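Record filed below.
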Amino acid sequence: MPVVHPALAPYLRTITTYDVAFGGPGVHIGMPSTELTFVLPLDEPLEVSWDDEPLTRTVGWSSVSGLHTTAAAVHHGHHQRGIQLGLTPSGARALWGVPASALAGRLLGLDDVDPGLADLPARLADLTSWDARLAVVERALLDSLDRHAQRPPRPEVGQAVALLTRGRSVAATAADVGFSRRRLTTLVQDEVGVSPKSFQRLARFGRAHDVMRRSVLAGEVSVARVAAECGYADQAHLAREWTGFAGCSPSEWVRREFPNVQAVGAGPA
């Protein structure tokens, strides 16, 4: 995974290049998380919708999705290449000049979010190396950071979001930052676009998704172990949350995303 520039590190959690061959056309499940997703496809426009709902479908050479609590359906052909970035909620202010709440639950293109970055896909089109593409993306984001120079959210809100991301309960987070739960809910909702409880659930689910994915790739999948490691009451609790966020059970997710894996642990999923 490419190294994030220090100036972008508070706002850009991940930057990933992908070059994937598929057995044929299909749909990849874009999982909810506490990151805003920014994708720059290289070979063909990206086609995305919420839960494969036609009325929400977008097609373009860039894709920006705010925080969401339902899965995205990412349509693909036989081959996809591109660059995917995961922004922190504060990255929306810093890089696009708007709070994350303005993008929550939305699928947009770069020209909708920041016209100053609208030419970025065209600038990548003729480049032939990943290093060159990543250098152009990095320079564009550094320029965007300078252009917007947004004030960060008030420190208490930033602290609250960080605590919730780490799994702190809503009540404990409110006490730590000195707000009532009602006040905390208003401030967090205004900043990120989802309630503190939903944000905390997204953070826990994101950890579970990461652990599950690593487990699948290692050939050691156990839903019960993932549930215990990520703070769920039991395997059934994780299965309910997974179905609510991903639109399918953990077992079905593995079958769809990793078709060569034969089984997912023991017991119901």
